[in-house]
Design a protein that fits this description.
The structure is a single chain. The termini are far apart. The strands form 3 sheets. The chain has a two-stranded antiparallel sheet. Strands 2-6 form a two-stranded antiparallel sheet. The protein has a two-stranded antiparallel sheet with strand order 4-5. The protein has a domain at 2-76 and 104-246: Serine Threonine Protein Phosphatase 5, Tetratricopeptide repeat (Alpha Horseshoe). Helix 1 packs across helix 3 (42-54), helix 7 (135-156) runs parallel beside helix 10 and helix 10 (211-226) crosses helix 15 (386-399). The protein is built from 20 helices and 6 strands. It is mainly α and 503 residues long. The chain has helices at 2-18, 30-33, 42-54, 65-72, 91-97, 106-128, 135-156, 168-171, 179-196, 211-226, 235-244, 247-251, 321-329, 335-338, 386-399, 403-416, 428-438, 445-451, 454-468, 488-492; strands at residues 81-85, 273-275, 316-319, 339-344, 352-358, 381-384.
């Protein structure tokens, strides 16, 4: 299975590198995107789809999308992680954590560019193929385009809506489409994908998008629409109906033992949609572990159970002590697979580093000779797994006045964590608590706080910042920090856009 994934990811990388553009928005002239003779066979169309997936991996760079977006720009801004210390290295990471993010932040521009590169590739495939032909691959392209726009919408707000290959001069004149327009495209794309894909793909095609993933993402989009800032209360009913239609299929992917979720042997068995990675020095490994232990290349080494001689890239980011205390007090079975409270920094076990860090994505195997560098880890990164669906579905039921029906799904999460089952109907506080602990390190928390409301988000993040971070080196979050800024290089090309509030 892993050998097959390495082969697919190697092809994926080559296609991604060959299709890179210099433009930030990456929707350059049609003539530069591909040759006119491509997309003429099923093999070529399939290769083109694999190239779209590549945008979520390393994509010819040192870091992957999951690391840049879900860890550095999302989890790093939540109330789960804090800076134990900081260095002058990687200032773009510090800006996220200290609420000093600016339009010139390279992390912001990288995320924005990556998502539009994905959209460009999807648009090319859809434009070069006909309706009724290569339906599966068109459905995958639509899913990936919808995914990109869903992340743009919740991180940047209104953005340019591009659905076909266009020339650069046309691109720079596009207005910022309303969220209503953006969500309409997302919903249309996901409905098509949900109707034209198999439920799941296995074997050599493990990791490819299926209809259950499309419908699960659609449900997530509805939950996002129901919350701040869109505040469409009718979206919760649509989310409920969407999740109800896939819940039986989601059950087939449920892993009753949390400790088995993040091991290589179970990859692509217990998730619904994940970004694929493989080690082996082929530039298709995950870079996430390099950002979760210490600071610069001269800082504390990796734990001894990873491997020796490779240095870290990120800041000294640690898990909130209150989270650690509560999970340990409750004997929460999610704690040990997710968090370590320290590690030996050398093979001789002479230096013990005491700090709580997220380790669910580290491979605790110092004998794994396939791992070649700090950004060559094999762990996939889950975007949607069954727990997402259960907790979203339960939340939708509660918001629709059906809390009694939600108890089953909340209790599936709680009993797996070793917690007592609820005997009363669950409340929103139960949902919030379980989502907080279930998805530590997975980039969910910040977006949850935002959709639960401006006031709640700012009060929670402000209290956390006051507790952990000196205001002389940062600032308290304000409304502006609930969105990322449109990158400055993008703004320079346009005279018809205003940046997001406060930037």
């Amino acid at each position: 299975m892993k050998q097959t994934k390495i082969k697919i990811l190697t092809i994926l990388l080559a296609l991604a590198v060959s299709s890179c553009n210099k433009d930030l928005i990456d929707i350059g002239p049609i003539s530069n995107n591909t040759t006119e003779s491509f997309y003429t066979s099923e093999v070529e169309v399939r290769q083109a789809v694999v190239g779209i997936y590549a945008r979520l991996g390393r994509n010819g760079t040192n870091t992957d999308f999951a690391t840049d977006y879900y860890w550095l720009a999302s989890e790093n801004r939540s109330d789960l992680l804090y800076l134990g210390a900081e260095t002058s290295a990687q200032n773009n990471q510090l800006e996220f954590r200290k609420f000093l993010t600016s339009p010139t932040n390279s992390g912001v521009s990288g995320i924005y560019s990556r998502l539009y590169s994905l959209i460009k590739d999807a648009n090319n495939l859809l434009a070069r193929t006909k309706e009724g032909e290569y339906t599966r691959y068109r459905a995958e392209a639509m899913f990936l385009r919808a995914f990109a726009y869903s992340e743009l919408a919740r991180s940047f707000g209104p953005v340019a809506l591009v659905t076909t290959p266009i020339e650069s001069d046309q691109a720079v004149s596009l207005p910022r489409a309303s969220l209503t327009e953006v969500y309409a495209l997302i919903i249309s794309d996901l409905e098509f994908a949900g109707a034209n894909l198999n439920k799941f793909y296995t074997g050599a095609e493990s990791g490819r998008i299926g209809s259950v993933a499309a419908k699960a993402l659609l449900g997530q989009v509805y939950m996002t629409m129901g919350g701040y800032p869109y505040n469409d209360a009718t979206a919760y009913g649509k989310a409920e109906a969407t999740f109800a239609g896939i819940i039986a299929d989601v059950d087939t992917r449920w892993q009753p033992d949390y400790s088995k979720l993040f091991i290589l042997a179970n990859e692509n068995k217990n998730d619904i949609f994940s970004i694929q990675f493989a080690s082996g020095g082929l530039n298709v490994g995950s870079s996430l572990p390099g950002f979760i232990t210490s600071s610069s290349s001269t800082g504390t080494p990796y734990p001894d159970w990873v491997f020796t001689s490779y240095s870290n890239q990120g800041q000294d980011v640690r898990v909130d002590s209150a989270v650690v205390k509560e999970m340990k007090a409750n004997n929460d079975l999610r704690f040990a697979p997710s968090i370590d409270e320290g590690y030996w920094a050398d093979k001789a076990h002479t230096t013990w580093v005491s700090r709580a860090i997220v380790t669910k994505f580290l491979e605790k195997d110092p004998t794994n000779a396939t791992i070649k560098s700090w950004n060559d880890f094999p762990r996939n990164f889950p975007i949607i797994r069954p727990a997402d669906v259960y907790l979203y579905y339960a939340e939708a039921l509660i918001r629709n006045g059906k809390a009694g029906q939600a108890r089953t799904f909340v209790n599936k999460i709680r009993t797996r964590a070793g917690l007592p089952a609820l005997t009363a109907d669950p409340t929103m506080e139960d949902i919030k608590r379980e989502r907080k602990f279930e998805f530590i390190g997975e980039g969910r928390r910040f977006f949850d706080l935002v959709r639960w409301g401006e006031t709640e988000a700012l009060e929670t993040l402000t209290a956390f910042a006051r507790h952990y971070h000196s205001l002389t080196n940062g600032q308290l979050p304000t409304k502006r920090d609930l969105l990322l800024p449109i990158p400055q290089d993008e703004m320079k090309t346009r005279n018809n856009w205003e940046n997001n509030f406060g930037y």
